[in-house]
Design goal:
Distance between the termini: 25 Å
Strand order of the largest sheet: 6-7-8-3-9-10-11
Keywords: ATP-binding, Cell membrane, Membrane, Nucleotide-binding, Transport
CATH superfamily of the largest domain: P-loop containing nucleotide triphosphate hydrolases
Number of domains: 2
Strand content: 15-25%
Radius of gyration: 21 Å
Family: Belongs to the ABC transporter superfamily.
Protein name: ABC transporter ATP-binding protein
Structural class: alpha/beta
Shape: globular
CATH topology of the largest domain: Rossmann fold
CATH architecture of the largest domain: 3-Layer(aba) Sandwich
Membrane topology: Peripheral membrane protein
Pfam families: ABC_tran (PF00005), oligo_HPY (PF08352)
Helix content: 10-25%
Number of helices: 9
CATH class of the largest domain: Alpha Beta
Largest sheet: 7 strands, mixed
Length: about 375
C-alpha cells in the first residue's frame, strides 16, 4: 500500500506522558570477543495513546529492538547495556530488564502485547480458534470460568470484524487476513497498554493491508492503547503513525512527526527511502532507489554507517559518527524543535559544516 503518496492529514490521537522508554539499549549477537553489535545505544520513547512507526531496510535491527525491549530476544542475542522502563496506568515505573520471571510473565499481554512477524502462521493448526484465544485468557485469569473466557473470545473476534461463529473454525479455514485479525484479537485480550506489531501486513495484499491498518487505527481510538508499528515500508506508516523513527544499521537516524518525515525528511537515508516508491499523484519523477548495500554489522565503517551510500557525504562523515540530536534548524521552534537527526549536515557547529542544507533536505 502506498498511503504516503496521498495527501492525507496527520493522525489526531491524543498523546500523553511516556509509557515505554528505551534508553541506550545495546544488543550483541554472540558471546565472544568477535560478537556482532546489532544495536548501539538506541533510545526511543513511546507516549501514551501514540502510534510510533519504526521503519528501515530489512536487517537494520527493528525486530531485534522490539524483542530486546520485551525480553523475548532468543539466543545468541544478548542485551549488553541499557534500560527499558514501562509506566503503568497507576503511574508506577518499572524497569522491564530487571523484572523477575514471575513479574515478567504477569506483565506480558497485560501491560505489553506483541503481534509477531509471520503472525498468520503462529496459530496452532490442530486447535480451534476459540480454544486458542480462551486458553490465553485463562492462563492469566485462572479464576475465570471457561465459558466466560469463550464469551470474551467471541467479543474479541467481533471487535476485529470476524463473526463469533468462526470460534469453532480451525486456522486453515480462515483467510490470511482473518488469521491476522485473530492474532490482533488475541494480543488485545487482556487490554494491554502497549501493542507492538512486527511487520503485521507483510504477507497480505494491498487491499487487506489497508483493512488491517484501518482496523488498528480504529481500535487504538476506541481502546486508547499505544502502538509500535514495525515495517520496512515507510509509505505504510504515513496514514496511521503519529511519529516515525527511521533505523539504519542498528541506529535511530531520524525521529520526527510522520508528516514531517514525509514532507521534510532531514536525514539523507529518510529522503532516499521516500524516493524509492512511485507517487500516485502529481508530476512523474524518476525512482532513484538507494545505491549500494547496508553495511556488514561485523565490519562497520568508521564514521557514519550510511556514508558509503550517501549522495551528500563529506570528509567528516567518513571519520566521525554522528549522534542523534536536534538539528541546526531547531531554533525555528514548532515541530522542527521536536525532531532528532543523526547527520553532520545538520550540525552547524561542527568544523567544516556550515549548516547549509542540500535542496532535497531543506524543504
Amino acid at each position: 500500500m502506498t498511503a504516503s503518496t496521498l495527501d492525507v492529514p496527520a493522525p489526531t490521537g491524543t498523546v500523553g506522558e511516556p509509557v515505554l522508554e528505551i534508553e541506550n539499549l545495546s544488543v550483541d549477537y554472540g558471546y565472544t570477543d568477535d560478537a556482532t553489535h546489532v544495536l548501539r545505544d538506541v533510545s526511543l520513547t513511546l507516549h501514551r495513546g501514540e502510534v510510533l512507526g519504526l521503519a528501515g531496510e530489512s536487517g537494520c535491527g527493528k525486530s531485534t529492538l522490539a524483542y530486546a525491549a520485551t525480553r523475548l530476544l532468543p539466543p545468541p542475542g544478548l542485551i549488553t547495556s541499557g534500560s527499558v522502563h514501562f509506566t503503568g496506568r497507576d503511574g508506577q515505573r518499572t524497569d522491564v530488564l530487571r523484572q523477575s520471571d514471575a513479574e515478567l510473565r504477569a506483565s506480558r499481554w497485560q501491560d505489553t502485547a506483541i503481534v509477531f512477524q509471520g503472525a498468520m502462521n503462529s496459530l496452532n493448526p490442530v486447535y480451534r480458534i476459540g480454544r486458542q484465544i480462551a486458553d490465553g485468557i485463562l492462563a492469566h485469569r485462572p479464576g475465570m470460568r471457561r465459558k466466560e473466557a469463550w464469551d470474551q473470545a467471541a467479543s474479541l473476534l467481533e471487535m476485529v470484524g470476524i463473526n463469533a461463529d468462526r470460534l469453532r473454525d480451525f486456522p486453515h479455514q480462515l483467510s490470511g487476513g482473518m488469521r491476522q485479525r485473530v492474532m490482533i484479537a488475541m494480543a488485545l485480550a487482556l487490554d494491554p497498554q502497549v501493542l507492538i506489531m512486527d511487520e503485521p501486513t507483510t504477507a497480505l495484499d494491498v487491499v487487506m493491508q489497508r483493512q488491517i491498518v484501518e482496523e488498528i487505527a480504529d481500535l487504538r481510538e476506541r481502546l486508547g492503547f499505544s502502538v509500535v508499528f514495525i515495517t520496512h515500508d515507510v509509505s505504510l506508516l504515513i496514514e496511521i503513525a503519529d511519529r516515525i523513527a527511521i533505523m539504519y544499521a542498528g541506529d535511530i537516524v531520524e525521529d520526527a512527526g510522520a508528516q514531517d518525515v514525509y514532507r521534510r525528511p532531514r536525514h539523507p537515508y529518510s529522503a532516499a527511502l521516500l524516493h524509492s516508491f512511485p507517487p500516485l499523484r502529481g508530476e512523474r519523477r524518476e525512482l532513484t532507489g538507494i545505491p549500494g548495500s547496508p553495511p556488514d554489522m561485523q565490519k562497520m565503517p568508521p564514521g557514519c554507517p550510511f556514508a558509503p551510500r550517501c549522495a551528500h557525504v563529506t570528509d567528516v562523515c567518513r571519520q566521525v559518527r554522528p549522534v542523534l540530536g536536534p538539528t541546526a534548524l531547531a531554533d525555528r521552534g514548532g515541530r522542527e524543535a521536536e525532531r532528532s537527526v543523526a547527520c553532520h549536515l545538520h550540525d552547524a557547529d561542527l568544523e567544516g559544516i556550515d549548516g547549509t542544507l542540500p535542496a532535497d533536505l531543506a524543504r
